[in-house]
Design the sequence.
């Protein structure tokens, strides 16, 4: 009896070890990996702040995984991906190398850099996914995540580009470039504010002012340069301190989170809000939080865009199943499904010209939400992200020079 | 067998939870605060994290703000709870309803209450809209700033709203145990209501009041989610500062977060020690109240 139990126990741990052993998986073919993945569970930790995204993942993607691959998708909502980074980091400290709680993370940017900094990601397997062929890895905006090379450690999911939103009923013609916006702020005291960095969205707004002060993004690309930073930073803090008395609450305090700014915009306390993902404006209008006359736009000088990804931690015990999930998310059908405005409205991370004719026709037929500026229009004036060291320096500089 | 079970066995479950979970976590935080994090390659313990946070420009302002929030919330709550407990001890029409409201308050989480405060007293909240409808203001900015303000009024309001019922119920239980005999005796000997309260009731309630106040102070000092939701962005309350370091994208900031957590814990501990010293001599004097 005891021997049978021991044998069963050893067999089950061996079965777990198979999909936890990333190196073994890299040596298999895709069909073998799908077989390994059958019956598995994937704990996907992702930002849970949007009901529509949660529904798409849990109901739509989860149903396909169960039906076609017998994989159970367990979506875990978090407020910020940094919590998941902390989780995996603590697991590594505790010596948990095979049975981590996290199988998949929706992640990008500075959090990706943290995962790489701590050697916390499973890398080098992305060529195995058949749908990886749909991704244009020659595009530096996809091959680099905030200036950090992806190096096969994560799989793209969406592309986003920063846009502003305003209520066209109270403000018919908004300022369309940064200089005009700064003038508008001074002419309309108390009607604008931005979340204090290190909030993710507040931070990217400050970066737009930084690009404007530096005379363009080209001077700032590449590794962190203290001299170039100091020069642009001095001008940026001067601009932000100059407009501070004309902000909401005379700039004595800033919203702590983007959620707070969205709330103030919905209540009419401020005239603008903004977001990396303009589809959020459409979703808020559909939910009744924003007025129907909300309209969004980008700046003529360009707005910052980036890609977000999914990543498998080094200690996930369900790597095969997680890889199957990633492959499904990259497929033309799924990228089309989430691009539909009533589902999510998220822009694809794959090259549409590489998909089937049906999928391409589907994309062409999509009618955007009136409150959401089209991704094509925004993409005409797209600015790249800076490497993470610049971000840290800008955030620290803002807190010391402007935020106190 | 007279039931003199070895006290250790009775205490074992609690000791397991306290020692196993709480003390271990505290110990690990302490180790991290000394910059010993092998997973990040930090293998030489030192005090650099403590030096960094104490010399950082916002630390003293944050500490001051946290102390202000905790002191103001605790004193206001204690005063109002004292009055409420004395009132609720009597029976009057509607007493059961008010008692129920006090008890119901305990079940509402702090965060839910904070959202409620935002809906009510923010510059675009219900009261502001009433003022606008009544013609008192014409723009959200004209309504007084009670949330995200430098004096943390919204934060204190929430803590007072949540802690008054908590302290009141503790005091009510104490008052029931004490009974009315002492006060009746004092009144029959000619003491005025105020003298009775000050020389008889208050000294007997003092241990319970101090215990409840110490709990409330420690919570108001160490909680981060309410100042995050309702507080200004600068200066931040100390726990918010710690939380931001803990969620900083640079993993090297984790030791500083741990150091701040240790500082907060030490202040809480100092408070508990102060409470212990304050109540020990009192408990003897309280027994023979004159």
Sequence:
């Amino acid at each position: 009896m005891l021997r049978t139990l021991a044998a069963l126990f050893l067999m089950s741990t061996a079965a777990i070890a198979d999909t936890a052993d990333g190196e073994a998986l890299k040596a298999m073919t895709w069909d073998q990996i799908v077989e390994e993945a059958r019956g598995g569970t994937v704990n996907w930790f992702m930002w849970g702040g949007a009901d529509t995204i949660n529904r798409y993942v849990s109901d739509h993607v989860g149903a396909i995984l169960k039906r076609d691959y017998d994989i159970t998708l367990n979506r875990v909502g978090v407020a910020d991906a940094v919590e998941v980074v902390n989780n995996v980091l603590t697991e590594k400290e505790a010596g948990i190398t095979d049975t981590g709680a996290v199988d998949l993370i929706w992640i990008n940017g500075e959090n990706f850099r943290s995962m790489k900094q701590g050697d916390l990601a499973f890398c080098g397997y992305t060529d195995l996914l058949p749908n990886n062929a749909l991704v244009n890895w020659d595009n530096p905006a996809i091959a680099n995540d905030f200036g950090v090379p992806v190096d096969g450690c994560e799989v793209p999911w969406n592309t986003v580009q920063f846009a502003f939103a305003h209520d066209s009923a109270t403000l018919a013609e908004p300022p369309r470039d940064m200089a005009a916006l700064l003038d508008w702020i001074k002419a309309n005291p108390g009607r604008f504010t931005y979340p204090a960095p290190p909030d993710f969205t507040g931070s990217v707004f400050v970066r737009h002012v930084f690009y404007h002060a530096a005379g363009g993004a080209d001077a700032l690309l590449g590794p962190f340069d203290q001299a170039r930073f100091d020069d642009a930073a001095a001008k940026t803090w001067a601009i932000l301190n100059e407009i501070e008395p004309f902000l909401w609450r005379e700039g004595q305090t800033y919203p702590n989170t983007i959620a707070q700014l969205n709330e103030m915009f919905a209540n009419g306390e401020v005239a603008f809000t903004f977001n990396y993902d303009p589809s959020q404006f459409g979703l808020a209008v559909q939910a009744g939080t924003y007025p129907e006359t909300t309209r969004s736009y980008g700046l003529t000088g360009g707005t910052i865009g980036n890609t977000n990804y999914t990543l498998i931690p080094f200690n996930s015990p369900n790597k095969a199943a997680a890889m199957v999930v990633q492959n499904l998310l990259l497929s033309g059908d799924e990228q089309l499904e989430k691009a539909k405005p009533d589902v999510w409205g998220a822009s694809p991370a794959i090259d549409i010209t590489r998909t089937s004719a049906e999928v391409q026709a589907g994309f062409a037929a999509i009618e955007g939400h009136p409150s959401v500026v089209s991704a094509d229009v925004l993409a005409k004036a797209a600015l790249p992200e800076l490497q993470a060291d610049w971000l840290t320096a800008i955030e620290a500089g803002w807190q010391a020079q402007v935020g106190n | 067998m007279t039931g003199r079970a070895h006290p250790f066995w009775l205490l074992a479950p609690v000791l397991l939870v306290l020692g196993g979970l709480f003390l271990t976590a505290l110990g690990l935080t302490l180790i991290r605060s000394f910059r010993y994090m092998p997973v990040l390659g930090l293998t030489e313990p030192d005090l650099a994290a403590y030096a960094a946070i104490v010399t950082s420009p916002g630390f003293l302002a944050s500490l001051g703000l946290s102390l202000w929030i905790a002191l103001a919330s605790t004193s206001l709550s204690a005063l109002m709870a004292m009055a409420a407990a004395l009132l609720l001890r009597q029976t009057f029409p509607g007493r059961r309803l008010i008692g129920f409201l006090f008890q119901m308050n305990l079940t509402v989480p702090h965060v839910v209450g904070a959202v409620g405060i935002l809906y009510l007293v923010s510059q675009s909240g219900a009261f502001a809209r009433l003022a606008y409808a009544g013609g008192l203001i014409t723009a959200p900015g004209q309504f007084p700033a009670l949330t995200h303000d430098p004096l943390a009024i919204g934060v204190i309001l929430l803590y007072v709203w949540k802690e008054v019922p908590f302290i009141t119920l503790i005091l009510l239980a104490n008052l029931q145990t004490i009974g009315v005999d002492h006060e009746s005796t004092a009144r029959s000997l000619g003491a005025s209501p105020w003298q009775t309260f000050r020389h008889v009731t208050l000294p007997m309630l003092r241990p319970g009041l101090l215990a409840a106040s110490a709990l409330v102070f420690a919570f108001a000092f160490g909680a981060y989610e309410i100042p995050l939701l309702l507080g200004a962005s600068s200066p931040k309350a100390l726990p918010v500062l710690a939380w931001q370091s803990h969620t900083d994208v640079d993993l090297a900031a984790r030791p500083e977060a741990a150091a701040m957590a240790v500082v907060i814990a030490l202040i809480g501990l100092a408070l508990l020690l102060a409470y212990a010293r304050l109540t020990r001599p009192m408990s003897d004097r309280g027994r023979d109240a004159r």
